[in-house]
From TrEMBL:
UniProt-recorded Gene Ontology molecular function terms: catalytic activity
Protein name: Histidine triad (HIT) family protein
HIT domain ranges (all copies): 5-112
Sequence motif Histidine triad motif, residues: 97-101
Length: 113
């Protein structure tokens, strides 16, 4: 997806403050952080959103989720964090490349549900 901003970050065409990278996934700081720790975790392969995830993505997403706790702790969210995945228009998704927000490092966040 040449016009996808997160694919362009993966390719190195747009700079990002990377905090973790391996063959399958990338984590980088959100450009508009809402907390002391605000990191986006993405699969390198373009997947639009949770709405389009299929069984063929299970191993990749399992790996991504298994990495979130370590990334959060390394970034300083040692006392808990919130993980948010916005999906589609109603879900408030702005960038249509699947990403998990890791938010923490500050005061306890207000309950959402
Ligand atoms: P969404 O609403 O899609 O879940 O959130 C997209 C997030 O991507 C927003 O928090 C926004 O600040 C972040 N973002 C958008 N463009 C860029 C960018 O070019 N670089 C980085 N690091 N973050 C971005
Ligand atoms: Zn993409």
């Amino acid at each position: 997806m040449s016009d996808c901003i997160f694919c362009r970050i993966v390719k190195g065409e747009i700079p990002a403050a990377k905090v973790y990278e391996d063959e399958q996934m990338l984590a980088f700081k959100d450009i508009r952080p809402i907390a002391p720790v605000h990191v986006l975790v993405i699969p390198k392969r373009h997947i639009e959103s949770l709405a389009t995830v299929g069984e063929e993505d299970a191993a990749l997403l399992g790996h991504l989720f298994a990495s979130i706790g370590k990334i959060a702790a390394e970034q300083g969210a040692t006392d808990g964090f919130r993980t948010i995945i916005n999906s589609g228009r109603v879900g408030g998704q702005e960038v249509y490349h699947l990403h998990a927000h890791i938010i923490g490092g500050g005061a306890p966040l207000p309950a959402m549900i």
